[in-house]
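re: the backbone from monday

yeah here it is again, tokenized this time
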């Protein structure tokens, strides 16, 4: 398993690719939120995932789940845990140092990099 930082200029294309090429219909996600002020909370527990989108104009990362949209305002860093070409989890730290951990129940195949 490897951890990889996603650069801010890549966020939109990375998450567009995850939503477009990933088989999200069969994936369930768990979202954990960790904050010094609020402690450790589960925002979603194994809910079917619909998509994940970064909107640069409003600087919001939106994780669409069945019956729930989890919004992360002003993300500061994003890194992902991967095993080969499989996405296992997404770790986001926002401007207020709140951590959002999106875990996938089963790995999501990432699209292969585009050939030059």
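seq for it, each position gets an aa:
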């Amino acid at each position: 398993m490897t951890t990889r930082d996603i650069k801010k200029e890549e966020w939109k294309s990375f998450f567009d690719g995850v939503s477009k090429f990933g088989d999200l219909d069969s994936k369930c996600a768990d979202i954990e939120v960790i904050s010094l002020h609020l402690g450790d909370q589960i925002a979603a527990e194994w809910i079917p995932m619909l998509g994940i989108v970064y909107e640069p104009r409003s600087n919001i990362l939106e994780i669409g789940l069945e019956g729930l949209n989890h919004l992360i305002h002003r993300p500061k860093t994003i890194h992902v845990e991967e095993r080969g070409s499989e996405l296992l989890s997404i770790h986001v730290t926002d401007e207020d140092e709140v951590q959002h951990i999106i875990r996938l129940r089963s790995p999501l195949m990432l699209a292969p990099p585009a050939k030059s």
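Helices lie at 11-21. The longest strand covers residues 39-55.
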